[in-house]
Amino acid sequence: MLSILSDGHAHNCERVSRRELLSIGTLGIGGLSLAGLLQSKSAAASGGPLVRDKAVVVLNLQGGPTHIETFDPKMTAPSEYRAMFGEVQTKLPGVTFGSHFQRLATWADRMSVVRSYRHGIGSHATAAMHVMAGGNSTGANMGSLFARVAGMTNPRTGIPSCTVLSPPSAGQQYKSLGAQTQRVTSVGTLPKAYAPFDPSAGSDIVKNMELKISESRLDDRKSLLSGLDQLQRRIDGSGVLDSASSFQQQAFDVILGGIGDAFDLTQEDPKTIERYDTRHLDIPKHLYKKKNKNLQRQSPMALGKQMLLARRLVQAGCGFITVTSAGWDMHGNAFGIDDGMPLLGTAVDVAASAFLEDLERLGLAEKVLLVITGEFGRTPRINKKAGRDHWGNLCTLAFAGGGLPMGQVIGASDRTASVPASTPVRSDQVLATIMHTLFDIGELRIRSGVPSDIARVLTESLPIPQLV
Questions:
Q1: Can you list the domains of the chain with their CATH numbers?
Q2: Helix (H) / strand (E) containing 235
Q3: Model confidence, pTM
C-alpha cells in the first residue's frame, strides 16, 4: 500500500536507509507503482459509467453458519429440527428470524432473506472459495473480479478497491483471533496482484500508510517516488508506466491525503463505537479449557470494530470489503449450537444492525449492499452433541441495502429446512446480483480492455430475479 516513513537517520533521497526504502517500496503492488495503479484505474473508468457509485460488504461467517438458527427458524418442524433457541418476530408479518437476531429483526423490512440458496458442497475450503467466487470459472473471489475491472485502488484516496477485514485488522489486541482469510481471498487464475488487501498481514502495514515526514522533505520524497517509478518500469518492462507523469502527481497527492485515516477509529464518535461494540461477547474460559484450547481464537469480540472499519473503508472509496467472523463450525465437539449461537449470533446481530443503522444515518443505505453468508449451512437435525454438521443443500444468505428491492423473503425450505422447496438460488445468481450492483453490465459487455474471460463470468449469469 502507501508508505513513506522517516526512521530518523535519512536526510535525503541519496542517504535513505534500507529500512525506509523497503517501507516506501510497499507503494508497488505486483510490480506496479501507485502511480501506475492510478493510471490503470483511470483507464478502467474511461469511456462511460462502467463502475457504479456503489460498494459491497460481505459479512462471511466462517465455518458454515446454521441457516436455521439465523434466518429460517422452522418452528413448525419436529423439535430435533427447529431452531434450538426459538424465533423472534420481525417487522415483516409472519416472518421470523432466529431468537439471537432481535436487532436485525427490526431491519427485516429493509432486508431480503434467501431461504433457498443451495450449492451442494460440504467441504470447508472448497465451499468457502466457491461461495466467495460465486462459482465462476476463473476461481477468483468476487472482490478480485471487481478490482480487475474497476482498478486496484481508488484514484481519489489510494484506498484499495478490494479489502479483507479479519479480526486482527481491528487492532493488535485481536491478533490471536481467527483469520483464515486464504479461504475467501483466492484469486484463481488472476494475477496475485489482484488479491484483496489484508491490513492484518503485517503489524506495520496500516501504520505505514500514513505520511510521517516533515514538510521540508516533501521534495525529496517526490523525487524518490519518481525514481521508484523508473525502477519499476525497468523491472516490469511492460511499458505500463509510460507517460505517467500526471499520475505520479496524483499518487503524490494521495500520499499527502493520509489514507491511514480510514483505519483510525479514534476519529469516531464514542457513541458510534459503543453501538458497534462486541468486546463483551468473548468465549468463556471454562469452555475452551475444558473442550478445546484453540476455541478462544473463535471469539467474536472484534466483529463490531471490523464492521465499523468496513463502513469507514466504504466512505474512503473501497468498493468491495469482506469481513470475516470465525467459529461457525458448530458440530458440538468444541462449539455447538447450544453455546455458540448466544455468542456468535449475538455478535452478528449487534455489529450488522449497527452497520445498517450507520449507513442509514449517513445517507449511504442505497449505495452500500450488505451480504451475510458463509460457506454452507448446517444439518437440519441437531446431533447428539447439541450441534449441527456440514450441509451444502441449504445455506445462509441475506441482503440489505444497495438500492435493491428489500422487505422480502426469497424462496422457501421444505418442512425440515433440508432442501429448497421453491425458488432455488444458485451461486452464479449471487455473483450476478452483486456484480449488477457494482457495474453497468450493459457497458461492461461492450467495453474494450476487459479480458474476455472476466467479461464473460461477469455478464453470463442473471441476478436473483426478486433483486432486480
A1: 1-30+213-257 (no CATH), 51-210+260-467 (3.40.720)
A2: helix 218-236
A3: 0.83
